[in-house]
Amino acid sequence: MIKFFLMVNKQGQTRLSRYYEHVEINKRTMLEAEVIKNCLSRSKDECSFIEYKDFKLVYRQYAALFIVVGIDQTENEMAVYELIHNFVEVLDKYFSRVVSETLNPL
Fold first, then answer.
1. 67 Cβ contact partners less than 8 Å away, ≥ 6 residues apart
2. pTM value?
3. Exposure of 11 by Cβ count < 10 A (0-12 exposed, 13-18 middle, 19+ buried)?
4. 50 within 8 A of 57, measured Cβ to Cβ
5. Which of 70, 88, 92, 98 is the most buried (most CB within 10 A)?
6. How far apart (Å, rounded) are the C-alpha atoms in residues 106 and 104?
7. Helical (H) or strand (E) element with 8
8. C-alpha to C-alpha distance for 90 and 29, rounded to whole angstroms
9. Pairing state between β 2-9 and 49-52
């Protein structure tokens, strides 16, 4: 099950957040800061799946945009990884030029 969905720029600013479980506002801020720090600090050669507290993080980078999804331990990481790509493709078709160059992840 998806717990949350974040879109973050390279500066670590949250551009979109959606939570599918209740999380208090002050805890959301702390959670987002820790999640963003974990994802932005990783190199491009590292895996896009991170074990974090009682859930997993799946993230993907497109140009200056990071999309991070928090899932529970039973969810399929590869399915969520493809979900992120499909989401970005839809955004790109609808709005055009969602990512600066192409949809090929960095």
1. 5, 6, 7, 8, 59, 60, 61, 84, 87, 88
2. 0.86
3. exposed
4. yes
5. 70
6. 6
7. strand 2-9
8. 28
9. unpaired
Q: What is the pLDDT of residues 19-75, one digit of tens each?
A: 999 999 999 999 999 999 999 898 888 999 999 988 999 999 988 889 999 999 999
Q: Distance (Å, rounded) from C-alpha 41 to C-alpha 51?
A: 15
Please write down the HEC assignment for all residues of 25-56: HHHHHHHHHHHHHHHHCCCCCCCCEEEECCEE
End-to-end CA distance of the chain: 26
